[in-house]
Specification:
With 288 residues, the protein is α/β, with parallel strands linked by helices. The chain is 35% helix and 21% strand. It is built from ten helices and eight strands. It has an eight-stranded mixed beta sheet, sandwiched between helices. β1 and β2 form a beta hairpin. The protein is globular and about 60 Å long.
Length: 288
């Protein structure tokens, strides 16, 4: 197999599922997270389509716990995956099913996926969403991030943000990065880059692995890097590399290798409050 086809396969997470074929696993994933989001909307108090910026995609959905007994609550920002070109906040409220009943607010963030948005724009949008959330919600006892796949990349870019251009520096207590990609330079050479149209320069300046010096402000953040047993070897390598670099920087970071999961159900299982990563999040937030 030549280098191009090997790279394509390594960066095609659906090719590595142990449960079903590539097409089936993607369709099943969308069905699963849509159903989870519908359930969350039926059981949670919600604020939908809240603007965080001027753009039509710059909106978020808030899933609220009952704060009558305790007005301050932890807040988790979830950034969806989809290779920066699929999915939206419309399918991204599923984590609220297990977290909101425990007294945690969950916010699903939209951003301008490709081809409409480019990488620089998406990164600045998710960073702006964090600033907006802090300004709009004063009853947060702690701010946490979670991202899946491309969303884990964007969450890592939030951790590496230069906040000097904003009026505020967020204090992020914890981040759970799930099956992420932290060096996006290899993506430039794959079909994933078709709609993104990234140059190597754009990919470099938006690769968390190359921005670790900017993580000094995240020294107080607890970071968990999780990867699926059946993620591709390249995805697994990227997670291990990012973990090692963060550890060498003195960041409080742990690595979770989740058995019997692939790139997709590692996220789908968050609707279950007994799932190992749900439990890990609850512990991180002091809600276990």
């Amino acid at each position: 197999m030549d280098h191009y086809h090997e790279l394509e396969k390594q960066y095609s997470p659906s090719q590595w599922s142990h449960r079903m074929s590539a097409d089936e696993v993607v369709n099943s994933h969308v069905t699963s997270i849509k159903a989870g989001t519908e359930k969350a909307r039926s059981i949670c108090q919600t604020l939908l389509d809240v603007p965080y910026g001027q753009g039509e995609d710059e909106k978020l959905d808030v899933y609220m716990p009952d704060i009558s007994s305790s007005p301050k609550c932890p807040l988790l920002i979830y950034i969806h995956g989809g290779y920066w070109q699929f999915l939206s906040k419309q399918e991204s409220g599923f984590m609220a099913v297990s977290l909101v009943p425990k007294g945690i607010a969950v916010v699903a963030v939209d951003y301008s996926i490709a081809p409409k948005g480019n990488m620089d724009l998406m990164v600045s949008q998710v960073q702006e969403s964090v600033v907006s959330i802090i300004q709009q919600y004063s009853h947060i006892s702690g701010l946490y991030l979670c991202g899946h796949s491309a969303g884990a990349h964007l969450a890592a870019m939030i951790l590496s943000a230069d906040w000097s251009k904003y009026s505020i520096t967020p204090e992020i207590k914890g981040a759970l990065l799930v099956s992420g990609i932290y060096d996006i330079v290899p993506i430039v050479s794959t079909s994933v880059n078709g709609p993104l149209k990234m140059t190597e320069e754009v990919a470099l300046r938006n690769s968390p692995l190359h921005l670790v010096q900017q993580l000094k402000g995240s020294a107080s953040t607890d970071v968990v890097i999780a990867v699926a047993e059946h993620d591709s070897p390249e995805f697994r390598r990227q997670s291990k590399d990012y973990f090692k670099v963060l550890k060498s920087m003195g960041i409080r970071v742990t690595f979770e290798d989740v058995p019997n999961t692939d790139h997709f159900d590692i996220m789908e299982k968050f609707v279950d409050s007994d799932y190992c990563l749900t439990q890990l999040l609850l512990k991180m937030m002091g809600k276990d």
